Amino acid sequence: xxxxxxxxxxxxxxxxxxxxxxxxxxxxxxxxxxxxxxxxxxxxxxxxxxxxxxxxxxxxxxxxxxxxxxxxxxxxxxxxxxxxxxxxxxxxxxxxxxxxxxxxxxxxxxxxxxxxxxxxxxxxxxxxxxxxxxxxxxxxxxxxxxxxxxxxxxxxxxxxxxxxxxxxxxxxxxxxxxxxxxxxxxxxxxxxxxxxxxxxxxxxxxxxxxxxxxxxxxxxxxxxxxxxxxxxxxxxxxxxxxxxxxxxxxxxxxxxxxxxxxxxxxxxxxxxxxxxxxxxxxxxxxxxxxxxxxxxxxxxxxxxxxxxxxxxxxxxxxxxxxxxxxxxxxxxxxxxxxxxxxxxxxxxxxxxxxxxxxxxxxxxxxxxxxxxxxxxxxxxxxxxxxxxxxxxxxxxxxxxxxxxxxxxxxxxxxxxxxxxxxxxxxxxxxxxxxxxxxxxxxxxxxxxxxxxxxxxxxxxxxxxxxxxxxxxxxxxxxxxxxxxxxxxxxxxxxxxxxxxxxxxxxxxxxxxxxxxxxxxxxxxxxxxxxxxx
Length: 533
Fold this sequence. Notes:
The protein is of the alpha/beta class and 533 residues long. The chain is elongated and about 95 Å long.
């Protein structure tokens, strides 16, 4: 090889981590060497110019491999001044990745191992620079405050978040603070998507949205495989192949390039479908598509195609909510006694109604208010006799409202762990409830037609939409592996009315039942309660 060619190769290796690994024939594990063959889509996913990049991906696309190779390369060539933080959902997962994926690189590349001065599950120090592995598991500090000693004191120039959908959102935010004193401040989020408008899917939708567009050699038009699947896979000469959706000719991944839908957006984003991988079994892809439905279809779309999907039983639809509309309009006042649930934010969302049976309800009005004075007036006009209000984020203002109201007002605190029924403390005017259980109750009240709401109007449609912005997923406990449901907020809009509905149901559990047009003249007694919630 000529000297000039060697110099060019050295410069390329110093700049590009994948070319470095490719030219070095880097061993990933015993008998397995890294190669860029048939994976051109990986090249643009390293050395990113934009400070924040998010990638939603399918399985077996080698993206994780490319990112830990980039991390090692950055240490070898001292590209950063501070640490690289590699985050995973749990400490256990982070330590496992460190041992299973990183350690073999050192064990089977002796020249690289000589550069390693520290090699533990938590820290890899290479050529004077460190990769730190952390789990995004929060600890409870002082009640509802979340913290993590893993993320407290690690100054970083780059943060990589692997499977961000499974991470605690507060820990993701805390990791951003580790970049405050960095001149690089690189963030790379990646993982298989779970729900639409959540996690990596939400981040991708807000990005410049790169898609791998393959040019057809026959008609010259372009195809994005995942976006047009299953039409982008067809049977030619008894063989399943990737095909142009325009002329049905066979196309090849190597003929593609990344094209941004919104190139002017500040944040970068890529969709790396499993269909791009040279390991993709196209026959299996088509079999899974044709033979699955429900949860299995959703899992196939997420893990193989990199498409966010959700089962219908885990999220309310607007139709689920609006199917409960009556012919009655929203009421502006009430002679009969009512109860109210209020979610507090920059704008407060109130749900006001009555309990009509042991487990049935009529919503009389839903509305948004700007301040507590307006909320007080609504309570008086609607003859509210019990209210449950979000205790957070304005603790002092909600306490003042409790003191000014002429009826019992309970400030609600969510708990992720309590398993008992809601606990009301009349002395402190506080109620504590398991967050997932009350969210389950809201969901069930609509799909089981246990609640009637006013007829359709602009505000009722807003109410119905916000009820769809929260979804249930099942998570495994990081230590026990026991599955546990958890309700999460989706992107694309607010979910205040969903939670206001939960507070309404809590307030209704402190009231007696009555018919919609029945006028009550006596205040209900608060000695015996039916906790049917």
